[in-house]
Amino acid sequence: MQAAIRSNSSDSTRNKGFWDVDLIRGDFPVLHQTVNGKPLIYLDNAASSQVPQVVIDRGSLYLEQEHSNIHRGVHYLSQKATTAYEGAREKVKRFINARHAKECIFVRGATEGINLVMHGYGRKLIQAGDEIIISAMEHHANIVPWQMLCEEKHARLRVIPMNDAGELLLDQYDALLNDRTRLVAIGHVSNALGTVNPIKEMIARAHKYGVPVLIDGAQSAPHMPIDVQDLDCDFFAFSGHKMYAPTGSGIVYGKAELLEKMNPFQGGGDMIKSVSFEKTTFADLPNKFEAGTPAIASQIGLGAAIDYLNSIGREQAAAHEADLLRYATEKLSEIEGVRIVGTAHEKASVLSFVIDEIHPHDIGTILDQEGIAVRAGHHCAQPVMQRFKIPATARASFAFYNTREEVDVLAQTIQKVIEIFS
Amino acid sequence: MSELSELYQQVILDHNKKPRNFHRNDAANHKAEGRNPLCGDELVVYAEVEDDKLKDVSFEGSGCAISKAAASMMTVAVKGKTKEEAEVLFNEFHRMVTGELDEETEPNNLGRLTIFAGVREFPVRVKCASLAWHTLKAALHEEQVVSTE
User: Fold this and answer.
1) With a CB-CB cutoff of 8 Å, which residues 371-400 of chain A face chain B?
2) Structural domain boundaries of chain A?
3) Distance separating alpha carbons of residues B114 and A77, to the nearest angstrom
4) Cα–Cα distance between A349 and B37 in angstroms, integer?
5) CB contact B109 to A (< 8 Å)
6) In this complex, is the C-beta atom of B65 within 8 Å of any C-beta atom belonging to chain A?
7) For A2-50+313-421, which CATH class?
8) ipTM of the complex in this document
9) Which tens digit of pLDDT belongs to each residue from A120-146?
10) How far apart are the C-alpha atoms of A219 and A189, rounded to whole Å?
């Protein structure tokens, strides 16, 4: 019943030829509540986005009617669960245009995906003296695993610098690439700055040296179409909970030939063909990388979230988010004392800002009292904060269910923050 | 907005803007660094202890208004106190901001520090208010780095 209502609502969105944000908001139960007596204004989507009713319903359906373990039982429920789980993998395959579903490995999120590549690829194939290139705007999830690997293998971590707008310096990237480079790992979209990096071009440059490229797509997958074949990336990791699915869901995509030659990530059940005390033979892709019972309900939810995104019209959703970013940038720029951090030409709907003499945590607390959820802090990107010589920023990040009216309240409340501290 | 105005009272805003005893002290015989990694608050507390008395206490660093004002008012409050008296204040302050001590009904030595009572309505900010105190305690106990995470 719910599903029928949803598909109606999205049809009418399409038919109207404009983004009916009220209709879309109706899909997200969590948005309809008050916080500190004020209507919730949820602007922390880059940390975790909200979950539409259809995704909640799909997870519940599994728990109510299909719950059992996958890949194990001959019984009815196990087959139902396995079909739903593998069905979600097919949806992911189409969502990122992978060649094969087996190239889409279910993980807990982008962080686990990157760690899987670090362990499976890095620990097997990277040696002393080798170099790994990352960028100055990476999330800690795409820094720390490589640092750990470099320390273990006596390899070297190289960092592509950025300019004051928060754009990577591609000539510096060229200068870093050399025949010792073994891997490039870069974020598609910066969670702290919003910058959209020219990854297709960067991947092509790395491939000239025969270097594989991992893309951290945690912030891009929710906002733009991903085509891993067109990008020609070797690995692509993203989290479900930043794209309207439950936490605990996510994907790391890898080209089959690379995944084949990698070591498994974790050992356990479900990732083997046969086990004896003398020798274990690992399972084929993707099971080789999926030891133990996964977050079945969450991953099935990821499949439902992909269906939902496809149903609402991604282009219109992206256009609405771009409008919100433009409008918010304009509104906040008008306020004296507010400085926007991250002014790249190509940006996703992430708006980091600081206010003269006011710490982002104080901004965050005051906004919260008015029902506005933003992130205040270093956004797990401390090197970015160091680059801009600030301890932290406040960050408003928009999803397609946010409105211009919410941006207006944000701007008014920022004025109020400044008044309190004046 | 009432809880908010409890939190950001004029005195707190004033100490944030013009923190007292806000300088390094090379003569200090006790010193510790305090960090709140979640917020990025970082401060160093210096204490000059003579005959068990806190002859001078100062701090430097950066942080939110609550952490800075709390550090500033702490230095004012503990200066001239004995180490033991400072520990008593630490405990009372900590119990107040975590909601265990009702400063209006329970006898205490907090004085002007009761201005931080409003922090207990903001659980995520308790660490901001208590960072300087944890750091002072660490300094007096000869620990060099303390983290409120």
Assistant:
1) 376-378, 385, 391-392
2) 2-50+313-421, 58-310
3) 60
4) 26
5) no
6) yes
7) alpha beta
8) 0.90
9) 999 999 999 999 999 999 999 999 999
10) 5
